[in-house]
Design brief:
2 strands; mainly alpha
Length: 160
């Protein structure tokens, strides 16, 4: 083999090695991004007022809940939810009833619409938090329960 042929082969080998190193480096750098995307996709997003574009207050919680309810075919109106929230908790998402028969039985009513844990679990709506103090989850589960029991939260005018 001539000296010129050896030089060409060595030079082309160096180029191939450089490209392999660059390609490997890019792949290694991309792994955290690809891994983060895959991990994020595996973790479901929980609907909150802010994640749905609403204010993090009573108005936003009701509007976010109505959006989730519409996606799941749960009936109810803003006025029906608002009326019941004000009666049950005065709009305090951390309200807890420690004195009624439910509390005496060990399952106090919690959250904006004063739902006990077994009812919250039974009527939980997918895509919302499993925390009964979460405003959107609490409203949505309570409205789901009210729909099953009374046809709609709009038909509830007292303790339920």
């Amino acid at each position: 083999m001539s000296a010129a042929a050896q030089h060409r082969r060595t030079r082309s080998s160096r180029i191939v090695r450089k490209l392999a190193v660059i390609g490997t480096g890019a792949a290694v750098l991309a792994l955290p991004i690809v891994g983060a995307t895959s991990a994020s996709a595996a973790t479901p997003t929980v609907a909150t007022a802010t994640s749905l574009g609403y204010a993090n207050n009573l108005d936003g919680w009701i509007r976010a809940s109505l959006q989730v309810m519409a996606q799941h075919g749960i009936p109810g109106t803003y006025n029906g939810i608002y009326r019941n929230v004000i009666r049950e908790s005065s709009g305090n998402p951390y309200a807890i009833n420690n004195w009624d028969s439910n509390a005496l039985a060990g399952t106090p009513s919690k959250g904006l619409l004063q739902v006990i844990d077994p009812t919250f679990a039974a009527y939980h709506v997918s895509g919302t938090s499993w925390d009964p103090y979460d405003p959107v989850a609490n409203i949505t589960a309570a409205c789901n329960y009210a729909a099953a029991r009374y046809g709609s939260i709009d038909n509830v005018y007292g303790a339920y």
